[in-house]
């Protein structure tokens, strides 16, 4: 497993190799974007990951990190992508109206969500409401790309592309959320963010999803010491991530969805503590690339 913990200016040049699975972090922050200042080393954009399964492009979440990803993608011609949303809280969809490929004819983007099955609105209706006055000046009808909104029920599994398997699980979060497992070429990446644990227990849905995974990315918004002040807010801790990773025998554990209160120095301290607890771990930062 290769890790590039620095920034790469040309991740897409290497992402199309047959059978290669690549994870590129474009936004790692939770709750709200935190620009500049004390958020330089880890980044201030909210959740957005680029996954390359050989020639296939998958995007996880549409936080503010989606905007710079979109700028990069437009430099490489037309795109055909699947965008999987964990849920539709604003920090995870704020980048959608600023994702340039959506405004370009000839592009194809399929948006997926698994948490709205029991809600009165489907995914298209939720995004349409966000991109409407007085919240936003440009309506969804102005998007020129071919966009397909696909709702499913968390827990479903399907082959998205030849050799690309998607497995999902429901997460414990206000209004619902979905965890994902992406399998390709005999390797797996699990994305489990915006979920709250029950103290003293391990979530069986998550354990099944991440069992034996190569990369396990987890909602580590708080520390165990901080958690009691935020009980009920729908988030977890890096220590719970370590417990889950150990129990499921995940290979690499990634701390993700950093709290806005956690500046670079705090994240350095968390990173050191995580690696002491579980050496096969890392703290996500913008630009980080992993090849399982």
What do you see in this structure?
This protein is an alpha/beta fold. The chain has a single domain (2-8, 17-291), classed as Metallo-beta-lactamase, Chain A. 18% of the residues lie in helices and 28% in strands. It contains six helices and 15 strands. The protein has helices at 66-74, 90-93, 123-130, 204-210, 238-248, 264-277; strands at residues 2-4, 21-27, 48-53, 56-60, 80-85, 108-113, 146-151, 157-161, 164-171, 177-184, 187-192, 215-219, 252-256, 281-283, 289-291. An eight-stranded mixed β-sheet has the order 1-15-2-3-4-5-6-7. Helix 2 links the parallel strand 5 and strand 6 (108-113). The chain is globular, with a radius of gyration of 18 Å. The relative contact order is 0.17.
In short:
With 292 residues, the chain is α/β, with parallel strands linked by helices. It has helices at residues 66-74, 90-93, 123-130, 204-210, 238-248, 264-277, and strands at 2-4, 21-27, 48-53, 56-60, 80-85, 108-113, 146-151, 157-161, 164-171, 177-184, 187-192, 215-219, 252-256, 281-283, 289-291. An eight-stranded mixed sheet has the order 1-15-2-3-4-5-6-7. Strands 8-9-10-11-12-13-14 form a seven-stranded mixed sheet.
Note the main sheet. Answer: 8 strands, mixed
Number of helices: 6
Distance between the termini: 4 Å
Structure class: alpha/beta
Helix coverage percent: 10-25%
CATH architecture: 4-Layer Sandwich
Give the number of domains.
Answer: 1
Whole-number average pLDDT? 94
Low-confidence blocks of residues: 7-15
What does the overall shape look like? globular
Query: Rg from C-alpha positions?
Result: 18 Å
Q: In CATH terms, what is the fold-level topology?
A: Metallo-beta-lactamase, Chain A
Strand order of the largest sheet: 1-15-2-3-4-5-6-7
What is the name of the CATH superfamily?
Ribonuclease Z/Hydroxyacylglutathione hydrolase-like
Compressed to H and E, one letter per element, the order equals EEEEHEHEHEEEEEHEHEHEE
- Text of the CATH class: Alpha Beta
């Amino acid at each position: 497993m290769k890790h590039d913990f620095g920034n790469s200016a040309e991740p897409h040049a290497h992402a199309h190799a047959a059978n290669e699975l690549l994870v590129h972090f474009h936004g790692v922050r939770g709750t709200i974007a935190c620009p500049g200042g004390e958020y330089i080393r880890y980044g201030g954009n909210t959740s957005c990951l680029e996954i390359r399964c050989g020639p296939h492009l998958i995007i996880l979440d549409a936080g503010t990190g989606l905007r710079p990803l979109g700028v990069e993608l437009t430099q490489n011609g037309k795109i055909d992508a699947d965008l999987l949303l964990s849920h539709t809280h604003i920090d995870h969809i704020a980048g959608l109206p600023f994702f340039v490929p959506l405004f370009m004819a000839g592009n194809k983007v399929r948006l997926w969500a698994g948490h709205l099955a029991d809600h009165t609105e489907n995914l298209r209706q939720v995004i349409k409401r966000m991109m409407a006055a007085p919240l936003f000046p440009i309506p969804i009808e102005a998007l020129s790309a071919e966009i397909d909104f696909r709702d499913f029920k968390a827990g479903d599994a399907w082959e998205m592309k030849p050799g690309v398997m998607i497995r999902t699980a429901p997460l414990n979060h206000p209004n619902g959320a979905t965890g994902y497992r992406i399998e390709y070429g005999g390797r797996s990446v699990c994305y489990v963010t915006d979920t709250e644990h029950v103290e003293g227990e391990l979530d069986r849905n998550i354990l099944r999803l991440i069992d034996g995974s190569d990369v396990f990315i987890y909602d580590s918004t708080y520390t165990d010491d901080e958690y009691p002040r935020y009980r009920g807010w729908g988030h977890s801790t890096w220590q719970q991530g370590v417990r889950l990773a150990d129990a499921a025998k995940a290979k690499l554990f990634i701390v993700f969805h950093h709290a806005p209160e956690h500046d670079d120095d705090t994240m350095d301290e968390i990173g050191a503590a995580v690696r002491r607890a579980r050496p096969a771990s890392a703290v996500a930062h913008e630009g980080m690339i992993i090849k399982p």
